[in-house]
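[job 4471] stage=fold_predict status=RUNNING
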Amino acid sequence: MPFLITDSAAPIAPEALPALKLTEFCGRPARGCIYSYLKCYLHHGDFFYHITVFDETPPSTQCAAVALSGDVSASAWLSLRVGFHSPACLEIHMPASDGSAEVVKSLPCEDASRFSGGDEQGLYWGAQGIIPASVFQQVFGDVLHAGSVLMGNVFLYDTRERAFGAAFSVPADTAVPTNEGMQPLVIVPY
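[job 4471] inference complete, writing structure tokens
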């Protein structure tokens, strides 16, 4: 079943959005299977993201990443990577001849704002920001809108180890972020 992303004419509070939860774990992360999720929506073609990670003391090597592609072939795909201690990084990837993915271009991006707090599920940190519509136009040749379908996945990983969490299953020997295991993200009108 595809994950639905709202295309809204007005900003939406994160609390009102569905969560794409990371429930697939490849390997056993040294710090355990940390609960995290992505909430997102479109507003005038811009992709607003809100990532929450339930980790009270995130190491500087911990990253959350979102991988997006404009089609199933995933010829070119986009990754957004952010950590509590590291700035947001937006990159275009292409398949390499050995089957892996290589970064072909780093894109300028505004850093995400960070937040932290706690609720009934525990203490958390998070990052929120925007991927501008112009990035999707540049990478996928079109601005996203209601009716668009992206392929995507979300990851939480530590750069010091191979184990990681993902929203959708990927092979255990895969380096993340990756276009492996991407599933449909359908943009619907609000």
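[job 4471] summary: The longest strand covers residues 122-131.
[job 4471] exit 0
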